[in-house]
Amino acid sequence: MLQAAVLLLNQNFEPLTILKVRRAITLLILNKVELIENEDGGYIHSIHVTYPMPSVIRLKYFVRVQRKEISMTKKNVIKRDRHQCQYCGKKKKVMTTDHIVPKSLGGDDSWENLVCACLECNNRKGARALKEAGMSLIKKPKKPHYFTFIINELEEYKEKWRPFLFQL
Ligand SMILES: [Zn+2]
Q1: CA 58 to centroid of chain Cα atoms
Q2: Residue 30 Cα, ligand 1 centroid: separation in angstroms?
């Protein structure tokens, strides 16, 4: 239970990172964070106090975070799209990246023009534009927010976190 994940928000409610419950409880005890959402019915017992099991906590002070840009690589495009083919929606182990607008038609290497695609869809589309190939995307690709990458590492995130992740 102490391994469960807790979402840490900055003072301005921007998601910062994901912590283990143990660390979250320490921050609560040190009064550095406030409890925003707790897990339904879960409690943590220490010798002196009982805490509701935290799900979302927020820093009481604002931290300025210097973030590294996520580099535009094939690996990161696939990671952004969570290994899901952006044409047929299937999730497979082996994935390729596809230029939405083919290079031969002037398409560039950008977050907006590259998507994760399965081999079949990639072959089916070939060097054609979307319309020409009669294919469509399941969502419009964009540059990923750094936190998307943290979230994508998790199998699934908690329902209680959803309201705080809308801006990603
Ligand atoms: Zn596909």
Answers
A1: 19
A2: 49
Residue 123 CB contacts under 8 Å (≥ 6 apart), including other chains: none
Q: How far is the CA of 105 from the centre of ligand 1 (A)?
A: 21
Which contiguous run of DSSP H or E holds residue 144? Answer: none
CA 77 to centroid of ligand 1, rounded, Å: 15
Q: How far is the CA of 153 from the centre of ligand 1 (A)?
A: 21
CB 129 within 8 A of CB 105: yes
pLDDT in tens, 92-123: 889 999 999 999 999 999 999 999 999 999 99
Tally of CB atoms within 10 A around 84: 19
In angstroms, the CA 109 to CA 59 distance is: 38
Collect residues with CB below 5 Å from ion ligand 1.
85, 87-88, 118, 121
114 SS3 class: strand
| Ligand 1 midpoint to CA 148 (Å) | 22
> How many whole angstroms from 112 Cα to the centroid of ligand 1?
18
pLDDT tens per residue across span 17-70? 999 998 999 999 899 999 999 988 788 887 787 888 899 999 999 999 877 788
Cα 108 to Cα 34: distance, rounded to the nearest angstrom:
45
